[in-house]
Structure formats: C-alpha cells, structure tokens
Amino acid sequence: MARQHTLAIADHRQVTARLHWLALQAPDLARDARPGHALLVHCNDSDDRYRLLRRPLFLAATMPEIGQLALLYEPHEPGLAWLARRLPGETLDVVGLSGRPLPMNDRQRNLLLVGAGAGLAALIFMSRFAAPHAAVTLLAFADDQERLPPPFLLPSAVEYVTMVDMDVAASVAAALQPTDKPSMLAWADAVVAALPREALAELGRIVRMVRLRWARGFAQMLIESPPGCGFGACGTCAVELRGRVRLPCVEGPWFDLRDVA
Question: What is the reported pLDDT for 1?
C-alpha cells in the first residue's frame, strides 16, 4: 500500500543537458522497491495551476546499502522545473511505492528492454536488477541526444544501443526488424517496453512477424499515467485495453503487450 513520506534530498545533479538525477534518503523504500515502482512527487510551485497533482516518477535505482533511491527525470513542465531547483538537504512530499512492479522471472536469461521518454528510468532500474543473472540489452530512443540516459548509469555488462530520431515508431521498426541481420527479438526470452502508444503497436506487429507466436508474459509494456491522484479515484489515467477500462495507477502501470498489440 502506497503511503505518504517526507524524504530528504541526498543528491541532485544534471547528468545531461536535459536529464536530472535525484537521490532521496529513504531506507525503508530502498529496501522494498522493485523495478517498475514509482514515486508520486508533490511539486509545490505556487505558479503551477496543477500543483495539487502529484507527478509520477519512476525509480531508476536503489542503493539499500546507504538507504537511498534515485529518480531520473526531465524538467519539461512547471512542476518538474520547480523540482529541478531543489537542493540537497531539502525535503520532498512523496507518496510511494506507487503501482505494481514489473513481473520478473528467474528463468529469463536474455532480456530486451526497449524504451523512450520517462519510462527509461524504470528500464535502467530493471537493467541494474537483472544484470547479475541475465544478458541484458537496453535499446533507447529519443529525439535529442541529451534525452538519452548516459551510459555510466548502467551496469557495464549491459549492452546499450541508442537511436536519435523524431519518429520513435519508425526507429523501433528499423532497430527490431533490420534487413541485414537477425532481429534482437529472435534471441530474447523476455521483453519490457516503455514506449509511446503508436510505437507499442509497431512493436507488437514486429513481435508477431519475428516470433510468429508469443505467449502472454513474454512482453510487458508501460502505460504511462498523467499527473493525478495515484489511487484510482480521479480516473485521469483510465485507458481501454481489449475492451476493458483499466486504471494504470493502481492496476498497472505494466501490462501485457498483447493487450494493445
């Protein structure tokens, strides 16, 4: 059950011209967090008309040995711009751990992570969690090089492939359905995708082409939630998946790719 916390900022820095790394002192949360979890952060900017709506930010790492967890985010709107001005020693009002973590299977030995935008933070956490026992490839897309997480945030064992292009769906097709070599999907035994909706549909099409048949559980996808209550009461995040209305903030945000593909 997600609870409200007041957490001290342990470290806050820019890691690219667009991305910020925010470490929070939270021993209990650092111990319990799993890849796919998020924090709902109250961004208290008096000029922000959406200040009552908490911003969902995915965990990018945990450091339980020092009682910290970390977020990776881009301050692309007023609330997150306020967050970007906070300094070490200040405190934040957060709710967490939010959402269901990614389902994980110890039998997965070849993990393919595919992402763009805010969901890349969750994939970084997943790569750090899985690297000790699986071969992990992270395929990251962005329309600007500075929106790509720097390689030093990833374990050295992770294969990190990046593409810069305005059209994420086209980039997904180019990367995963190449004409000159086998697709990465051919060897993967699990896929986790954090992509825009049109790119998720393209990924589903390619999985069907490359693998012919794929069982539920093979590919997980992220349905991002906009700022909202985080408890399923406001309905802001509601989406329709296979004819059913789902609330990603409480039922997700991770779903089977077959629900949208």
Answer: 66
